[in-house]
Amino acid sequence: xxxKRTSKKIKWITLSIITIAVVGIATALLMRPxxxxxESVVANTGDVTTYYSFSGNIETKNRQSxxxxxxxxxxxxxxxxxxxxxxxxxxxxxxxxxxxxxKIIGEVAxxxxxxxxxxxxxxxxxxxxxxxxxxxxxxxxxxxxSALAKxxxxxxxxxxxxxxx
Length: 165
Fold this sequence. Notes:
By secondary structure, the chain is of the alpha+beta class. The chain is built from 1 helix and 12 strands.
């Protein structure tokens, strides 16, 4: 009986080893990565364009804020917002016959008074801005400084007035 048990033990051990070996080989075959297909492509040469985006401030070099120098009544406003004006153009007439004139070439940006309004001395009446002569201050990250150089082309989008320069 002891020989039968020993022979059964040997059969179980042999069967277990064979089962483990089969499972190991099957796992190794199933876990093998699939073959990857490759496609050959001819490299082309060309230009690479890189776009950078920075934020900053735009300031006008020429700006005129028309301010009343004395107490007056506005009889007629000769311009409206968005009008282009030249040096010497009449902007506002007063009830006393005085004329307030433009000292710069630009565009009327803001009118702060209405016709027939009584105005105190020092009151801001309107602004004239020269949009053709702007100064741009841009904040650039230190890692992007190498991308800037004198003479490089740049487009500046001004969201407030919906213009690109």
